[in-house]
Design brief:
two-stranded antiparallel sheet
Length: 240
């Protein structure tokens, strides 16, 4: 079983879905510490004029260092309508109408708890793109957290507990992990390499690093699946 493990991001960039597609089981890191100015409660879309702008889930006041699963979205549910209004300038995008209707339904049915909200939006996106998604919440795993001594240990101990035969991580985090420690636990450490390539956004220059929502507005489901499938998995002990 190949394991993928990440914090639940809010409509993340397409490479996140390439990682999900490469995994047999997806572990939602719902008890990771909530980080300000991260990607759990926000992402980026095109700005109406140039560059990009944030879309965001406003959250209720919470203690610094709270786990993601302890954070709640704002009690003012109007934030959903405000977010949808931010997408108004996508009207001329080829897939605007269908994606807007899908997103409206997805947000309306999403829970207020931030971890559950992001998990539900990931699930809805995967369903729309035809990507299998079998999430397990990290908070539900019963193993000794005392064995975790650094950032790279979370995936190792979770993989050991779930008896994963492989753990795949984005290439950007490769330095956090030691292949020999995973091998000792009977788990192969793998790296996913996914290179984004420009697609038609209706204007130039191309704005990279945006939410999957931007690609969904401009590309068909088949094209998105084809782009995601270009990801390459290699052993962490193998040079790029």
């Amino acid at each position: 079983m190949r394991l993928g493990f990440m914090q639940p991001y809010f409509f993340p960039y397409p490479g996140y879905f390439a990682l999900i597609a490469a995994s047999d089981t997806w572990l939602v890191f719902d008890d990771a510490q909530m980080i300000r100015h991260g990607w759990v409660d926000r992402n980026r879309i095109l700005h109406p004029e140039e560059g990009w702008q944030y879309i965001k889930v406003p959250t209720r006041k919470h203690r610094r260092g709270s786990p993601i699963r302890a954070v709640e979205a704002s009690a003012d549910r109007d934030w959903r309508a405000r977010l949808l209004r931010q997408l108004g300038h996508y009207r001329k995008a080829p897939h605007h109408d269908e994606v807007y209707a899908w997103l409206e339904t997805t947000l309306a049915g999403a829970p207020d708890n931030l971890a559950l909200l992001t998990e539900s939006t990931l699930s809805a996106t995967c369903a729309r793109l035809g990507i299998p998604f079998t999430p397990i919440r990290h908070s539900s795993l019963d193993y000794d957290r005392g064995a975790v001594n650094g950032p790279g240990d979370w995936a190792l101990e979770a993989a050991r507990h779930l008896r994963a035969t492989a753990y795949v991580n984005p290439v950007g985090g490769e330095a956090l992990f030691e292949p020999t420690r995973f091998a000792a636990a009977g788990c192969r450490l793998e790296v996913l390499e996914w290179t984004p390539t420009p697609y038609r956004q209706g204007r130039r220059p191309f704005e990279p690093g945006l939410s999957i929502l931007d690609m969904m507005m401009h590309c068909s489901v088949d094209e998105i699946r084809s782009r995601i499938a270009r990801a390459r998995i290699r052993s962490a002990e193998t040079s790029p």
